[in-house]
Design goal:
With 483 residues, the protein is an alpha+beta fold. Among the domains are: 2-145; 295-474, Heat Shock Protein 90 (2-Layer Sandwich), CATH 3.30.565.10. The chain is 51% helix and 17% strand. Strands 11-12-10-9-7-13 form a 6-stranded mixed beta sheet. A 5-stranded antiparallel beta sheet has the order 2-1-5-4-3. A two-stranded antiparallel sheet has the order 6-8. A hairpin with a 4-residue loop joins strand 9 (372-379) and strand 10. The chain is rod-shaped and about 165 Å long. Residues 120-125, 458-468 and 479-483 have low confidence and may be disordered.
Length: 483
């Protein structure tokens, strides 16, 4: 602001000086023109130049006059007995009349100009007319001309200076605010700042700073995710062999136990345990591939009804333990998709277990409310299959709702935040999408997958061929399937 005020003051001073010079010149020109007119009247008139005539001319022009003859005798005057200054060079032409030099008479200063009159005066004698213009009168005329214009210029300059100060103050505050915002961004706080209300360059600059903050926030998220992936890859590589060896050992032990103990009940339990271990091994492999180039998917045609029939026994222990009911609604029409059966089984199993856990936790909070998990399968005209898994839980928290499918995002104290991230990658690799929403006090996760337009022959559908619309229920009180 100080440079702007200095410029305003310098401008005011320069304007005042220029105005004073121009005013002084205009005042001098005006006075000299007025004197020329008076001298012209006196020199061309036919009446005698007496004291009375000169006094009338003084009243008109504010100048004093002294007329002397060739011998230096005063013929007429407006100054009484004042003594004229020493003789000076006279002006012969009217157009050469000007204010002249300064002279002092009786303690008063005048601009003195002697003019040679061309006509004879009193009997044909020529004379010299001394024109004496008071300097006080000249300064008064100058002030009358200068002060109003200077006052207007000063007021205008002050107004402009005030406006410049206000603009500079606003800009200074805005720039200071931008400085604080930039420093806040430099410290890692990438929140967007409110924009100024006035639409000007400062607002555009603030918007640019906000865009920079958003880009830096996204870049920070990408860097953090890359570091997390790198850390996960390093840690996963160190434990991969131990976990896979443990899973392989468990499967071998179950195979030996199944060969020695062949009862119907034990065989079913062992089959469930073996499938769980197989899925665990597949899940571990996908866990280790997070952040790497996706592996080639070995596709085959899958009947969704058959896939869900195989998954339900795997979640039956969890359903019984959680004390919730599970409903599975499968349409009568055969719905076939193409993809990796193990990978899709892992996705649906993860969503089912999450839904069972959420329903269980909500049931513990609201014991009067029935806890349930519902699976619905449907198809639309766009050749897409929709698998909807709903639960009576409270849904994800607000802090993780927007980034639920990103790695390491979870609201569970013991969770790693990788299940939904893996599910999102698997579904995307199959050309589908996964999303979630809250509707009618339920949490709904929906998997959308492309449908195979030409279904396989009936002989390839196994037990699922020709099935009707089926409702399968599993509850904590009834461990059997109700069809």
């Amino acid at each position: 602001m100080l440079p702007l005020l200095a410029v305003a003051l310098l401008s005011l001073t320069a304007v005042g000086i220029v105005n004073a010079i121009l005013t002084e010149r205009r005042t001098r020109d005006h006075v000299e023109m007025q004197l020329r007119q008076v001298v012209n009247v006196l020199s061309t008139s036919s009446f005698p130049l007496t004291n009375t005539v000169l006094r009338q001319m003084r009243d008109l022009s504010s100048a004093d006059f002294v007329l002397v003859d060739e011998q230096g005798t005063i013929v007429a005057t407006t100054l009484g007995e004042a003594v004229l200054p020493p003789e000076r060079t006279t002006v012969a032409r009217i157009q050469d009349v000007h204010l002249g030099t300064s002279s002092q008479l009786d303690g008063k200063w005048y601009f003195h100009t002697p003019v040679q009159l061309p006509l004879g005066i009193q009997g044909g004698r020529s004379g010299v007319l001394h024109v004496l213009f008071p300097q006080d009168e000249y300064r008064r005329a100058w002030r009358q001309s200068f002060v109003p214009s200077f006052a207007i210029g000063a007021m205008t300059s002050l107004v402009l200076a005030g406006a410049a100060w206000m603009v500079a103050r606003r800009m200074s505050r805005a720039i200071q605010g931008l400085k604080e915002e930039v420093l806040r961004i430099a410290q890692g706080d990438f929140r967007e700042a409110p924009l100024p209300t006035i639409d000007d360059e400062i607002r555009d600059l603030s918007a640019a700073v906000n865009r920079t903050a958003s880009m830096l926030a996204e870049y920070e998220q990408q860097v953090r995710r890359s570091e997390q992936m790198r850390t996960l890859s390093i840690v996963g590589a160190s434990i991969a062999h131990q976990l896979r060896n443990a899973v392989t050992g468990c499967r071998m032990a179950l195979d030996l136990h199944a060969a020695e103990c062949r009862t119907a009940h034990d065989e079913e339990c062992l089959l469930v345990a073996k499938r769980q271990l197989k899925l665990m091994e597949s899940q571990l492999q996908r866990f280790l591939r997070i952040g790497k180039r996706p592996a080639v998917i070995i596709r085959r045609e899958i009947d969704l009804a058959t896939l869900l029939d195989e998954l339900l026994p795997l979640v039956r222990p969890a359903v019984q333990h959680a004390g919730v009911s599970l409903e599975c609604r499968i349409p009568s029409a055969q719905l076939v998709i193409s993809g990796d059966e193990q990978a899709l089984s892992q996705v649906l199993l993860n969503l089912l277990l999450n839904a069972i856990e959420a329903a269980q936790q909500q049931g513990l909070k609201e014991q009067h409310r029935k806890s349930f998990v519902r699976v619905e399968v449907a198809a639309d005209d766009a050749d897409m299959v929709h698998i909807m898994i709903s639960d009576s839980g409270s849904g994800p928290g607000e802090t993780v709702a927007a980034t639920l499918f990103e790695p390491f995002v979870t609201s569970k104290a013991e969770g790693a935040g990788l299940g939904l991230a893996i599910a999102s990658e698997v579904v995307a690799a199959h050309g589908g999408t996964i999303d979630w929403r809250r509707k009618d006090e339920t949490t709904q996760f929906r998997v959308n997958l492309p449908r195979v337009k030409t279904p396989p022959p009936a002989a390839d559908c196994g037990a699922s061929a020709g099935r009707e619309n089926v409702l399968i229920k599993l509850s904590a009180d009834d461990a059997d399937n109700e069809i």
